[in-house]
Structures are given as structure tokens and as C-alpha cells.
């Protein structure tokens, strides 16, 4: 099952059983998989934002040192096939919401930041969907902590909210998607009644 299929299945089942929660092991597995995709998306997006800020902020020797240590290949993703892809630069392939009809907005939200282009220190370029990333690998705990701090800083600046634990945005994204699905079903004629038989 692909990452997009997993997401659609989770959303469908969450819509049908939003008030009860996951009932089967397969539903729990699909939710955990979607949560992992959200964590990967949050981490890689934070790295991309960190790189973009580097060019727009005044020069700071400490920040420059931290940037170089983050993007020297010691931080990497590991794919489903076990390939370690060191990160020198990372950018989402599609990182924006599209205005338009409700269907167009939902589609853009579904694919937003779901595929990333990663350049390695040796110049190779990998384009990977988040569902093919099995882990984020750092050669030191300090580097992983630095990534977590960058993700929390990006979250604070984008939402203007106080610091939250790392991974919290991935969880709230999952919960928000579930709530949005439930709201949409209540707005439809019939309020989504009888959909459990479909």
C-alpha cells in the first residue's frame, strides 16, 4: 500500500469512526504510518526552512557553524531499501497550498510537502516521497537535538505559538485532518449517516 493510499484509508476510516477511534490493528497501523509521514515531513521541511533563513538573516558565525554541521552529510534519511542518503540540501517539491475549489484545496493539502528533493554532499540528487523514508539518521545526538530545536523554532515563528514538544505538530496535523473530515461529513446532506455500510 502506498503512502497516499494509506493516508486516504486512514482518513476514510477516521471519518467513519471519528467518535470511537481505531478499532482494528490495521487501522492503528495506518494511523501510525501517517503519523510517521507527518514527522518526516516536519523534519525535512524544518531543514529546508533553516537553509532558506540562512540566506536572509545577517551573518552570524555561530549560526553558520551550526548550519555547516547540519548540512555536511552527518544527517541523512534512510530509505525503505536501506539506502542512507546524506543531506547537504533539502527542498519540498510542492510546498504550497493552491487556491481554488474545495477539491483543489484538498488535493494540494494532501500532496503538500509529501515529496522532497535531497542533494547529497557529493552532488547527487534524490527525489523521495515521505512514504519511502524509514528513518532519519544522525551521526550524533547533538545533531538530532539541533534539528528538533530548528523544527520547534520554525513552528513557533510560523504559528506565533509557544514551544511545544518535537513531533507535536505531526500529531496535531493528524488530529486536525480527522476533525476536518468529520466537519465535512456533517455539512453534507444526510450528515454522513449510513456511510458505514458503504
| Rg result | 19 Å
- Figure out the total of helices: 6
Helix content percent band? 40-55%
Strand order of the largest sheet: 2-1-6
Computed structural class: alpha+beta
Q: Which regions contain 5 or more consecutive residues with pLDDT less than 50?
A: 191-198
The CA-CA distance between the termini, in Å, is 21 Å
Outline: globular
- Total strand segments: 6
> Which series of helices and strands comes N to C?
HHHEEEHEEEHH
Mean pLDDT: 76
Main beta-sheet annotation: 3 strands, antiparallel
Strand content: 5-15%
Which SSEs are present, and which pair or pack?
Elements: H1 3-16, H2 25-56, H3 61-70, E1 75-79, E2 84-86, E3 89-92, H4 102-111, E4 115-119, E5 125-129, E6 133-138, H5 141-159, H6 168-187
Antiparallel strand pairs: 1-2, 1-6, 3-4, 4-5
Helix pairs in contact: 1-2, 1-6, 2-5, 2-6
Amino acid at each position: 500500500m502506498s503512502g497516499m493510499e494509506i493516508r486516504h484509508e486512514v482518513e476514510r476510516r477516521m471519518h467513519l469512526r471519528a467518535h470511537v477511534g481505531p478499532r482494528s490493528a490495521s487501522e492503528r497501523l495506518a494511523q501510525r504510518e501517517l503519523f510517521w509521514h507527518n514527522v518526516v515531513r516536519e523534519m525535512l521541511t524544518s531543514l529546508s526552512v533553516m537553509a532558506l533563513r540562512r540566506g536572509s538573516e545577517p551573518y552570524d558565525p555561530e549560526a553558520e557553524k551550526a548550519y555547516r554541521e547540519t548540512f555536511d552529510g552527518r544527517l541523512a534519511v534512510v530509505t525503505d531499501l536501506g539506502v542512507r542518503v546524506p543531506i547537504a540540501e533539502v527542498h519540498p517539491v510542492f510546498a504550497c497550498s493552491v487556491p481554488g475549489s474545495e477539491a483543489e484545496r484538498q488535493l494540494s493539502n494532501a500532496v503538500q510537502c509529501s515529496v522532497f528533493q535531497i542533494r547529497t554532499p557529493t552532488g547527487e540528487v534524490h527525489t523521495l516521497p515521505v512514504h519511502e523514508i524509514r528513518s532519519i539518521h544522525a551521526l550524533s545526538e547533538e545533531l538530532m537535538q539541533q534539528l528538533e530545536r530548528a523544527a520547534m523554532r520554525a513552528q513557533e515563528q510560523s504559528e506565533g505559538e509557544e514551544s511545544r514538544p518535537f513531533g507535536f505538530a505531526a500529531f496535531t496535523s493528524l488530529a486536525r485532518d480527522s476533525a476536518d473530515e468529520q466537519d465535512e461529513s456533517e455539512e453534507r446532506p444526510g450528515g454522513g449517516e449510513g456511510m458505514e455500510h458503504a
